[in-house]
Amino acid sequence: MPQRGGKARSVRAAQFAEAAAQLAGSLSLDAILTALCRAATTVLGYSHCWIALLGSDGALNMVAQQGFPARPGEQPAPHDKHELLFALARAAIDSGEPQICHNLLVDVAYERWRDEAAQCGFRSAAAFALRAAKGPIGALVLCSERENPFDEEERALLSSFALHSALAISAARESALLLEMLNEQKSLQRVVAESRDRYRTVIDSTPDIVFAMDGEGRITFANRRAAELAGVPITELIGQPVEAILAPQSAELVKQAGARGMAGESVLPFEVELVHSRGARIPAEVHTSVTRDASGKIIGVQGVARDIRERKKLEEQLQHLQRLETVSALAAGVAHDFNNILMAILGSVSLMRAEAGADHPWLERLGQIEKSAERAAQLTQSLLAFSQQRTPRREPVDLGLLLREFVRELRKALPESITVRTHLRRDVPPISGEATQLRQALENICANAREAMPDGGTLSISLSERQVGQEQAAENIEARPGRFAVIAVRDTGCGMDEETRARLFEPFFTTKDPEEHRGLGLAVAYGIVKAHEGWIAVRSEPGRGTTVEIFLPRHAAPAVEAPVGEAAPEARQTILVVDDEEIVRGVAREALEAQGYRVFEAEDGVRALEIFRAHAQEIDLVVLDLTMPRMNGAQCLGRLREINPEVKVIMTSGHIGALAPEDLGAEDMPPFLRKPYRLEQLVSIVRLLLGQEQ
User: Fold this and answer.
1) CATH class assigned to 206-307
2) Over the stretch 215-266, which tens digit does the pLDDT of each residue have?
3) Measuring CA to CA, which residue among 290, 287, 288 is closest to residue 264?
4) Strand partners, 649
5) Using N-to-C axis directions, what is the helix angle for 435-451 and 521-531, rounded to 10°?
6) Are strands 457-468 and 418-424 parallel, antiparallel or unpaired?
7) What is the 3-state secondary structure (H, E, C) of 124-147?
8) Could you tell me which residues are beta bridge partners of residue 211?
9) The domain 574-689 is classified under which CATH number: 3.20.20.140, 3.40.50.300, 2.40.37.10, 3.40.50.2300?
10) Beta strands 418-424; 431-433: pairing state
């Protein structure tokens, strides 16, 4: 209850000053409101203190209160439902003046709230607007159990109390707003920092270089990959001219690209060479764009550079493979034409020997010609093997058994200074292919290894099964994923450099004396493995030996055998010889006529069909070349069988691999005679098919 008298007022004034000082030191709005209510009831002595503040929508909301004594047995109305207090507060705010009611029980202006006042137990009330610099912010309402407590001095004291309260509340609100802004700023800074960290993590985890440079070509940003490829910390890269990590020619390219970019021109992707701190050069493909400031002005260049070492490696492999394919096609064509020439030479030699007699002085020279022609024929067979024109027979091959037999003979052939070691797994499944060809490939590879160890060494041969994944397959353009049998041949010889290794399988390439080495051994091995649907991988360094790995697919297929027909012998039988080379037809005709056969000749499949239709009842056998213009041998064979399904045929060619077996009628494959053949071989097979020999 408010005190009267000068001494009491002095005490209250001192207490009020102390409370005001405490309010000034507080920044919490809730703490200030609680302190105001406590000061009004304990220091100023009022029975009830009620504070309401204006919201942003102009509504008045009760925010704090203390008091509300009730008579025994009665329940007061909730403090936020007192219409009297809201009415007093609104009046004080709207008028800007204190609203004083000395006796609520008799004042007619407050008649409608008498019951409410009586229920709460107070007789008088005063409301003071709370004003800040920008206007009213709410109201303070004080209630007393006494009548007429609000004299002039009391009103002055309460007005001062309301002023200090308004200042404290405003300060707390502004402090809260400032704190909220600071928290928002900190939160925003945290979000920015987290975003920057996420961006940096993403940028640093990319396998590409991400960079930025200013208008003068200095590096202003670089990711971890840039530092790795440059071989220096990121902190040392920043501020450096971009030329510091580039080869001289590449530095000029980047300088020109940067100038075009700063001028607003578009810059296409280009290649550069990065220089590692240890001197290694790394090819990279660069994509750039310009950096602009807030006004749109170009202030620098940013971009991405991709390490293209693997791509360059694959491109080199592709170029090498294309070069081998070109040489392969050339070799096949040369070998085919050369086979026809050799066929004519060997055929002519056979005819001349038959006519010359046992004592003819030319027999020795004919033998020399025949021997030279046979050596040339071996050369053409090597060329055809390299060009994959020789299709291997498809039959199950036990690589473990093949290698054990091969190594047994290899140890006998190698000098004692070379030690042979083996590690052959016995659980490797068979592969499908031709054992003779695979053995030839191994012989050629081991011969190369032997020559690499003139002073002796160790030759290791192993057999295993390996799963080739996508990543490993990507390292070799000829490789593919899957499970393969792998034959590895390792030597401890002189090794080879990258340039030599790149040309290893080229025909006629040799690092030895070309008079003694034709350079076809590894080319033939390459062709044989390719024909078996595999590939060869080579690892070698000068002075550290060489490892050659042969990868072969595991699938197996039954061997294909060519059935031989039977025919009853006749005294005078007719043969149709079909070949686009006149000299080949000539020597074959001569040899067959010398044996008593009647012979027709045709230069291609079209002419052969014409002759066969005209003499179908007379022709007993057809000697049919596989590769001819207008209509090839496989097509002609099909048409011949349409006319006479029982027709007997001998296929001849220098490269059967030009056509698939199914093109030749795999179910009834005719006998095959490889060019260049001896005329004796031709006569023997003819007699066999016509039933004149067993």
Assistant:
1) alpha beta
2) 888 888 888 888 888 888 888 888 888 888 888 888 888 888 878 888 878 7
3) 290
4) 622
5) 150
6) parallel
7) EEEEEEEEECCEEEEEEEEEECCC
8) 222, 303
9) 3.40.50.2300
10) unpaired
